[in-house]
Amino acid sequence: MNQTFQAPSLSAAPPSPAPAPAEAAARARGLGRGSLALLLSAHPAPALAVTALITALGVAAGSDVLGSCLVALAVLTGQLSVGWSNDRIDLARDTAAHRRDKPLVRGEVEVRSVSVAACAALVLCAPLSLANGAAAGGAHLIGVAAAWSYNLGVKRTRWSWLPYALAFGLLPAFLTLALPGHPWPAAWVVAAGALLGVGAHFTNVLPDIDTDLAAGVRGLPQRLGRRRSRTVAALTLLAASAALVLGPPGPPDATGWSGLAVTGALAVVLCLPLGTAPDSRLPFLATLGLAGTDIALLVARGTSLV
What pLDDT was estimated at residue 7? Predict the structure, then answer.
């Protein structure tokens, strides 16, 4: 009995249907939310603020357009790497503390994405820093390494202030060593930067001291307590102001004296027993005012960095 066999069809399988517009829109929204969550995990506000400050200081010191762009890119990638590494390293502690302000804790971004972003930003930071010159790039990379060391565990020790002092103290060197002739910055601006860094550390920790202690983080501010920490913040930031006003050659101008008067008044407010309630924002806002005045003085003294 004859049987008829039919050869299998060699024609291509029909293409899968394109995703519906609603499904494509949902995917786009999900991608956008994930990208935003990844960006927020890098602490973009302080990263952009530090980048803008250092770039402005570089312009005031005499950096040209190309040099200013290289400085901005190096600082930005370094700051992003530090921000991402901070959230990744502190994930377990932030989860235990129910930090709902953290995208990683809320599950809005994958852990692997943050880890890759932190490493990628750090890898980019190295050539961008060295593009400013070997000495300048080395100074900046030492500062970035100090910030990473803080995230990796120094923040839990009595030496928690040291990475801030080192990183901020070396920023003027990053700028001046990139200038023609590669001059080292004046001693007064290095001291002012280091003092500003220590003050920034105590200012940053003030609102979270109780939470940090509950999580076992015992840096120097946590060991000293809220009252003494705000006093240290006030005195270090006031000392930074004094260095910025009295350090440059020649008598201080009216801007310098005015800045020193403002920081002195704010320091007195911080040292008085005002706003001692744990939830009071007065000490934090006053120290922010001190730091902001110091930053303005630092930019105003940009031409005298060398």
Answer: 44
Euclidean distance between CA atoms 49 and 79, whole angstroms: 10
d(CA 257, CA 265): 12
Three-state SS at 109: coil
The pLDDT assigned to 154 comes to 96
Q: Which residues contact 181 (CB under 8 A, 6 or more apart)?
A: none
SS3 of residue 6 by DSSP:
coil
State how far the Cα of 209 lies from the Cα of 223, in Å rounded to an integer: 9
CA–CA gap between residue 222 and residue 127 (Å, rounded): 37
Of residues 76, 250, 236, the one with CA closest to residue 169: 236
DSSP letters along the chain, please? ------PPP-SPPPPPPPPPHHHHHHHHHHHHHHHHHHHHTT-HHHHHHHHHHHHHHHHHHT--HHHHHHHHHHHHHHHHHHHHHHHHHTHHHHHHTT-TT-HHHHTSS-HHHHHHHHHHHHHHHHHHHHTT-HHHHHHHHHHHHHHHHHHHTGGGSTTTHHHHHHHHHHHHHHHHTTSTT-PPPPHHHHHHHHHHHHHHHHHHHGGGHHHHHHTT---HHHHH-HHHHHHHHHHHHHHHHHHHHHSSSS---HHHHHHHHHHHHHHHHHHSS-S-STT--HHHHHHHHHHHHHHHHHHHTGGG--
- If you search the block for the tokens 């913040």, which residue do you land on? 233
- How many residues are recorded in the chain? 306
pLDDT along the chain (306 residues), means of 10: 45 54 56 82 89 88 90 96 95 86 90 96 97 96 97 95 95 91 90 91 85 87 90 89 86 86 83 59 69 78 68
**By CB neighbour count within 10 A (0-12 exposed, 13-18 middle, 19+ buried), where does 174 fall?**
buried
Token pair belonging to 145: 């390494």
Nearest in space to 191 (alpha carbons), one of 251, 241, 141, 150: 241
